[in-house]
Structure formats: C-alpha cells, structure tokens
Amino acid sequence: MDIEVKAPGFPESVADGSVVTWHKRPGDLVKQDEVLVDIETDKVMFEVPAQANGILKKIVADVGDTVTSQQLLAIMDDSVKTDIPAKLNNKKQGKGVVDTNLETGPEEGNTVPGKPAPIAPSAKNLINQHKLDATQISGTGKDGRILKEDVLRYISSQKEQEPVKEKLPELRSELVTKDKEPPAKASVFIDELQDETRDKRVPMSRLRARIAERLVEAQHTAAILTTFNEVNMQPVMDLRQRYKDRFEKLHGIKLGFMSFFVKASVEALKRFPAVNASIEGKDIIYHNYFDIGIAVSSPRGLVVPILRNAESLRFSDIESTINNYAIKAKNGELTLEDITGGTFTITNGGVFGSMLSTPILNPPQSAILGMHKIEQRAIVINGEIVARPVMYLALSYDHRIIDGQEAVQFLVTIKEMLEDPARMMLEI
Amino acid sequence: MKKSFDVLVVGAGPAGYVAAIRCAQLGLATACVDEWVDDKEMPVLGGTCLNVGCIPSKALLESSEYYAKASQEFTEHGLITGKLSIDLATMMARKDRIVKNLTQGIASLFKSNGVTVISGRACLLDKRRLEIIDKSNKRTIYEADNIILAAGSSPVEIDAAPLEGDIIVNSTGALSFDDVPKRLGIIGAGVIGLELGSVWMRLGAKVVLLEAQERFLSIADEQVSAETLRLLTKQGLDIRLGARVVGSDVKAGMVTVHYEDVSGVHEEKFDKLIVAVGRHPNTNGLCADDSRLLMDEWGFIHVDENCRTNLPGVYAVGDVIGGPMLAHKGSEEGIMVAELIAGNQAHVNYGTIPSVIYTNPEVAWSGKTEESLKAEGVDYNTGIFPFVANGRAHAHGETNGMIKVLADAGTDRILGVHMVGPACSELIAQAVIAMEFSASSEDLAVTMFAHPTLSEALHEAALDTGNKAIHIARKRK
User: Hey, what CATH class is B352-465 in?
Assistant: First the structure.
C-alpha cells in the first residue's frame, strides 16, 4: 500500500526548509531506514529515512522546493516485499532487498540483509553498543547466525565507507531547538566509532537543557543591549573593613559585597521603574515590589534563587538569605519556589575572576546587573592618578521597554550609591 | 541364495550399529553383519567399544576409583573403615553385566527398528555384493544398493612382545585379569595405556609405562599433557618416555622386558605386560582381491569427505578409515552416510571432535592446540582457570587441573578448549557445542552457568580470555 514520506516536524523557531538532495529516484528499491532525502533549514539539516522497505513511487517535493513542517515529500509503496522471496532459495524468505547478490549456501547460509537472523550473545552486545541495525549485517554462523566477528567486520567496513558524510549532520544540528522529538532520525549510527579521545558526546541534563532553552528564548525575543560603567569600591571596602567583625558578631553572618549591591540596586530600581518591569504580550507590567534574583553557581549549572521583597530586607537578612541559597544550591536542594519569579537579577562573575561581561537577560525580566572583579586600577581623582579598587559594572537591558538613557542613568545611580554608601542608608 | 537390502552394514560397533539404526529410521531396508561372538560363542553386537573397549574399561575405572578413594580419602571425610579388600571376580562380573546390558540394548534397538542381524564374517565382492560366512562355514551372497564398511580396528601386535597367554596381553586381556598383578608393565603411554594403567595402579599394582615417544601425549596440547604427566606421576604411575621395547622373555610366570632409551638398554621384570601401542584397521580379508577397494599402506580404507570409497555404492566409516579412532567420530560418520544414502544433506565437523582420557583427573579437549595455532601463524588469546579456584572442585576434593580456552585474537572465535581435571569428559561437551555454533569466548562469558558447578571453570576460562575472570587475579600486560 501507499505510504506518505513527510518532512519532519520542524522546531518552533524554524519556519521552513528546502529540499537539497534526493538520494532515491522513483522506481528505486528502498530499505527501511535508508536515507531518502536531505532537507536544509536555517538551523539544522534533516535526513529523512524510509519508514519501511519498498519502492519510491512519486516525488512530490523535488530539489529546490521549499517545504514546511510535516509537509508531504513523496509517496512510497511498501507492498513490494511480497514479490522478492520468489527469487530466493525456498529455505529462506526475505523482505525488500536492494542488492541482488543473494548468496544462499546449503547449511551455513548467509542471511539476506533485511531479514532478522539469530544473533550470538556477544554480537547482540556489540550491536547495541554501537546502535547498529542488525538487519544490515549478514551472519555467517550456523543457520545464518550473526556472530561477533560478523558485527566486527560490518563495523570496520562502515568505518571505511563514509566517515565524512556522518560528520556533517552532527555539525549542523548542534543548535539546541525547542523540538521535543529528535530531528527525523539524523541517521548517524556510527558516530560513536569516531575517535572518542577527540570528541565526547554527553546528553544534556534536563536542567542544562532548560536553561539553554530559556536563554535562547531570551535572545530571540528581547532587544538586548549592554551598558557599562565603573565603580570605585574603596568606600565600600573601607566600610566593610571597619565594621565587618562587629557585624559578624552581632548578626551572625559575614558582611559580604552582595548586600551592598542589592541595596544599591533596589534604590536604583525605585528611581527607574522600567528596569524593574516586564513585558507580557503587548503590555508592560510594573512591579511594586523588588524580588531580586541572585545568580548562583550550582554543581548542576546556573540557578537564580530570589530575594523576595528585597526592599524590606536588612543587610544581614540579605547576606544570610544568600548564604542559605548558596548552601541549598550546592546540595541541590533549591525548590521551584525559590527560583521562580524575580523582577531583576544580579550576577556576580567577579568571584570567578571576570573583568567584564555582557550578562544575558533572565526572562521575563527586563534587565540584569553584572558585577565583576574588584581590581586595583589607576584612576584619576582631583586631577591625580591614584590606585583604587575598581570594579566594572555591566547592565544588560531589554531595549523594548528601557531606553538607553534610562539604562545609563540607572547604572550611574548604582555607581553613585556604591561610591557613597550613606546615600543607600538615607535613600538619597 | 541371494538376499538384497537397501543398505548392508558390515560391523555392529558404534559406527556400524548407529549407521544401521539411522538407515532403518530413514525407511531403508537395512541389515547389519558382525562376526563377534562372546565367550559362549553367542553372536553379540556392539563391537570393540561395548565388548572390550570403552564400556568395560569405564566400568573398571569406576570400580577402581571407588577403591582408591575409599583407601586414600575416606579418613579425610571422617569415614572410618577397616582395611579394604578386593574381590576381583565380583568387579569383573559387574563389568560383564554392564556390557551384557548394553549389547542386549543394541539388539533390542535393532529389533524395534527392523534391522536384520546377520552373524558371520563378511567379504566384499564386486558390484555391491558381499559374501558372508557364518559359524558353520556356510556361505551366502548378499546384495545391497549401498554397503557401509564399519569393520573397526584391533590392537597392534609387536614382534618385541608377542602375546602370550595371560602374561603378555593386549587391551582385551588387560580387562579381565584374574588377579591384581604385583608389577604391571605397559608398552605405550597413550590413552589406552594410561587408562588401563590407572585401573590396576589403583587396585594395588606397581605400574610402569614404557613410551617410545620422547613427548608425552603428543596428540594433546602441550600445557595439558605436561600437567597430566605431572599429576599421574604424582599418583604413582611410573611413566618412562623415549623408551623403546626391543625384546621380551616369558619365564616362570614372569616377563622380562628389554628396552632402550637415551641412557642405554634396560631390563624390567613384570608379572604382566600389556601391549597398548595402537590399533590397526580390520581390513585383512575384508574384501576379495578383485573388489579393487582402495586402501592405504596401513590398511585404512580410502574415502572422500563424505565417506565414499572408490567403489560406487560402497561407503566406509569409523576406525577402519583412520583419523581419530573414537567411537563418536565413527557414529557421526555413520549418521552422515545414512543421511546421504537417503538423499539428505549431511556432513561431519571434524574440527571439533572431542577427545577424552578417563584417568583421574580426566583429560579432554576439542579444537586446536596452542602448538598448531602457533604453527599456522594464528594470533590468539588464552584464558586459563585452575580448578583450585572452583568451589565445587573443593567440595569434591578434586582441585587438580585447569581449563584453557583459546580464542582468535581478531574475531574472538573459540578455536580450542583443553581441560584436565574432574568431570572434564562431561564438561568438554559444552565447549564443543560452543564451537559448533562458532561461538566467541565472549558468548560463553556472557552465558550464565549454575553455581556451584565444575562447569563454572569453563565460564571463568572464557572470561579470562577477555581478561575478565572474577575468581582469579591474573596480572596481564
């Protein structure tokens, strides 16, 4: 009966593709899983395999045609298999065979490729390990049994044949797409056999995959720009130096930098509400609270737990909450609640030695503040070159709702707050 | 008087009787002729194997093994007996009973399959005809579309030690001594010599084996034969290699043997001497001069890979065609010929014939030895597992020996398996099955074996071939 050959389901971000190469012409015999046609899209190259044995009847979308997701490409006839056995030795029956070198010896007959043969246990292991198709391997054992040596022979012959072809689909399909199903059987069975010391293939963890998804989404939807500034951290450092012991004694927690950053951010956010807002559809939502996300590195990846209502948190509260989050993150104990929401995010690459960076937005937030390494630098104060502990600040923002001027001024505000901490206290 | 059949089988030994039964199963009108008679002059089936070979020797090996264990190992088990004694007549009677049961068994199989039994001596004529002379010298000509010659073999005699009464005997005589000899000499330390030597040594004889070859058990893998020599010598068998017997004298119920080795000529006195230097085919008088049956210079009948002789319609199987003189090889050849006659496909896989020596420890092997692989330039991996690391072997109190697996280095196909130890006669079958299915050592390694069994030693040897044995620590490169 007729079966349809369709284009694969394209991911959301891919609108259409074009037919690049047809590997079979109408009238050709086709084996199950053999690649029929290559479709190229912006992001990925798809190889469309045959779903069954049969004959390719008619090509509907030919080379150069544009096709959309799941569009009909061709028609195949899978009823051909019943004709073939008549040509074979009546001891063995086969399905849709392409090659006509059917060798059927008396006792130790080779299997006809396409027919399932008994498989020796060690051969099974090899086949599974290398994700091979047993129907493609001819067996030379008793009753056509596939032996370990048959699989080894098959593997080495495949290795010789098409090393280059296997690499291309891999390269092009590197981009992570939102598509939940794998692209239509990118038929790279033998990729594991490439030298494993050069490449190592590891599937993404769910967390990483999800992070990847959201980041790509952020980049697609928002118009992200970054503005920079620098801040002289001497005043903050002096303050810390003077009061850190007392702070720790009284509040039971170390006085770090994050509480200063958070306080400064809250002040700046109050003055520039757009930076604290988010876009939903065609609306801008202004939030009257300040849930600051603090980007934390966990063994499984980057996570952003939220400081709820940071405007009402004390320095010590900020420090202890962040500390708790860090411990939780390290132990993988952050809950969904911990990391959901947030109106603004602070990320501190400085602890890892980052001098400067362009942080990516944490959707649906509209801005993210990047803190960096504090380093002694030569700056000019009152006409004189002096060495001061300087940190670069970066603010990435969504230009759709935050103007350039707003972003710059926001960052300047943070700088001024940090360079004169009294202003944070006095809320000026 | 002419009688005709579809198939006429000459010889009712393991090759002949099996061929006859299969022919009958395939619907062919079959007759089987054999000249063997028992001591009461009654015709008996089963040939050498059942009457004076495999079966009686295994029966005596069993009885003598019990005696050896009872005398030497019972105290270890906490079993206290008085001094043990042997009633040889009873032992022999048991052996005879077993032989009789089995030969009668074949007679009833023949009956139920409709195989015609003819007692007499056959002589092959021309044009698919046989002349059979019975006890009373009556001659009858038989005709058959197909003739299968399975006349078997007999012990070789040597001029240096001609048979004499019950002093100098061959294997047949050695199976029915009246007393346990004090000193027993055996010419030939092959399979038969070793088994017979074991029987009498266990029963109390001082046994000396004189082997003309420099190398012990040259048919087996070198490591296995070396280990076997060590273990048998430890048991008390005095095995002298490179010792060629040049003469013997019988006097006053004793035999003096003169033999030569590298250090000169020596003399040994024995109460009894067994000549076990090999067997020759029973083709003397098997065929008339004008039959033109092709044989080689030793009298082995010449055949192709399907056991066809040069004469149309005439096949030959078993010891009479040479090759390994093993009952099971003859039987499988008999089956192949029966199938071919009936028009079916059949073949014998000569590459995996198992060989067994029923000493204690048993020795068994199938496939290629390390020496032959080296000579062929084949790259192979070895897996070895000693029985001393096997739990069941310890429970049995039989921890000597080991199993060795040889596998092709490239394909991992098992090329040979060699064993010495407890129950190897049984264990070798597992290896033969694996090789018959072209198994790789990994196939055996991933197969589950029951615990605790001796078979696990084969499993571990297969694992060791891939460096994955669990129960031994082997440092490998």
Answer: alpha beta
- Is B168-277 the same fold as B2-155+280-348? yes
pLDDT tens readout for residues A57-97: 888 888 888 888 888 899 888 775 444 333 333 333 333 33
Which two tokens mark A268? Answer: 């700046």
A177 occurs within a structural domain = no
What was the pLDDT predicted at A321?
93
A149, B347: Cβ pair inside 8 Å?
Answer: no
Residue A199 binned pLDDT confidence (cut-offs 50, 70, 90): confident
CB contact under 8 A, B442 and A145: no
CA nearest to A120 within chain B: B443
pTM check: above 0.80: no
Concatenating the DSSP letter of every residue in B207-269 gives: EEEE-SSSSTTTTS-HHHHHHHHHHHHHHT-EEETT-EEEEEEEETTEEEEEEEETTEEEEEE
Contact A390, A230 (CB under 8 A): yes
Query: Chain B: residue nearest A142 by CA?
Result: B437
Residue A360 located in a structural domain: yes
Domain-embedded: residue A93 = no
Contacts of B345 in chain A (CB under 8 A): 106-107
- Mean pLDDT of all residues in A317-343: 86
- In the residue annotation, A77 being an active-site residue is answered as no
Q: Which comes out higher in pLDDT, residue B197 or A31?
A: B197
Q: Looking at residue A237, which CATH number applies to its domain?
A: 3.30.559.10
Residue with tokens 């006053």: B252
**What is the rounded end-to-end Cα distance, in angstroms, of chain B?**
75
The single-letter DSSP state of residue A7 is: P
pLDDT single digits (tens) A89-106: 333 333 333 333 333 333
Q: Across the A/B interface, how many CB contacts are shorter than 8 Å? A: 48
Listed residue (B35, B237, B12, B238) closest to B132, CA to CA: B35
Q: Which of A142, A147, A155, A156 to mutate to test the interface with B (most CBs of B within 10 A)?
A: A147
pLDDT of residue A162: 54
- Superfamily name with CATH number, domain B2-155+280-348: FAD/NAD(P)-binding domain (3.50.50.60)
Which class does domain B168-277 fall in?
A: alpha beta
Q: Tell me the catalytic residues of B.
A: 451
- CA B408 to centroid of chain Cα atoms: 28
Q: Do A145 and B412 touch (CB under 8 A)?
A: no
Tell me if A316 is assigned to some domain: yes
ipTM over 0.85: no
Angle of helix A258-271 relative to helix A315-330, nearest 10 degrees? Answer: 110
pLDDT at A301: 73
Which pLDDT band holds residue A418 (cuts at 50, 70, 90)? very high
Q: Where are the domains of chain B?
A: 2-155+280-348, 168-277, 352-465
Which residues on chain A are in Cβ contact (under 8 Å) with B443? 120-122, 148
Interfacial residues of A (vs B; Cβ cutoff 8 Å): 106-107, 120-122, 125, 140-142, 145, 147-149, 152
Q: How many domains does chain A fold into? A: 1
Mean pLDDT, all residues of chain A: 80
Domain that holds residue A246: 209-426
Find the closest chain B residue to A126 by CA distance.
B442
